[in-house]
Amino acid sequence: MSKQIMIGIREQVELVENSHFGSQKQPKAFDKNFTHGGFVFTHEGTIDGDQMNFSVHFNDGIKNEIGLNVTWRFEWDGKPSSRCREESIRKTIEIEAEDASIGAKFSLPLSEIISMADGKSLILRAVINIHHTNGLKGPLKRFDISNSDCSDCIVQVEEELFYVSKSYLLSQCPKLYYKTLPDRLKVYRVHPTIFQDFLEVLHAVPGAIMEHNIGHILSFAFFCGAQTVLDKCEDYLLNTESNVTLREKLNHSNDYRLEKLQDTLINQVFDVEYLDFFLYEKVLRSQNYSLVMKVSNRIDVLRGEPQCCFRQFPSLPSRR
Fold first, then answer.
1. Can you say how many angstroms the Cα of residue 193 is from the centroid of all Cα atoms in its chain?
2. Cα separation of 169 and 35, whole Å?
3. 41 CA to centre of own chain
């Protein structure tokens, strides 16, 4: 089953410049690199005779399997055209790093591009979604059999085996859901890739937390009570420049009870309407009552109302 990893980055290029003299300008070739989720993509447009070829490539030095979806949209003066092209691809890299690239591509006649522009500027947007990965980041620390000399326990996650210290793992994860087998522990409710990332954070491996995996790491850490990992993820969200939005951070702070992050973010929100939505649709439903007061007091400040210690909220059914 595929899983959504990174969504919705929009990389744009001005394909045809606006003409002020009535003459139609020709499309321009381009070659742009950009970063999404810590990984480098190349967006390229080349002219070959009377055709223009477009491509988005993911470049990485590790052999990976990746599911990539790219939708190209043409817009002029901020209005989308009827021309929309979508490509999906899923391949496994089996070539050397210097040539390793996978992606999506399509072609259009130059005459059709000029017709779409109709003397105006023409913007091409590439909306990129990565919905499946296997080995995208690559292991930063190995927990396979090569680590057996430093371990006293084998952990099985689906069909993969991890060699770890049993006492350290269980002391750090008091709520870990596992089954004891004769020669190993079998851990449930986590994907092997996420468990690998989780172990790297648990063992303080630099660079283990990234934009595309922090939500999964937080979810599993919260599930198994790994406070050390939760703290490290919270520090990442507080101190690292990233493309994780303020609203995504707020949702993480509520879902996983990250109080330092809550205290920092609440005063950065000035949208009362959004805070109302966040309070009633997110915070109250998760029964996070300490955050209820922080959000409601922030709403009062923005509305210029006196803060109060008691507020009437609609009752919600208790969770069973």
1. 15
2. 34
3. 15
Its pTM surpasses 0.85: no
What percent helix, strand, coil does the chain show, rounded to 5?
30, 30, 35
Indicate the burial class of 77 (C-beta count within 10 angstroms; 0-12, 13-18, 19 or more).
exposed
298 domain residue, yes or no: yes
Low-confidence spans in the chain with pLDDT less than 70: 1-11, 18-24, 34-40, 58-69, 76-104, 119, 128-139, 305-320
What are the helix (H) ranges across 35-180? Answer: 110-117, 166-172
Name the token pair of 44.
């390229």
**CATH number of the structural domain spanning residue 196:** 3.30.710.10
Number of separate domains in the chain: 2
Classify residue 317 by its DSSP letter. P
SS3 for 215?
helix
In a domain, 88, yes or no: yes
Matching residue, tokens 């509520």: 254
Which of 134, 168, 200 marks a domain boundary? 134
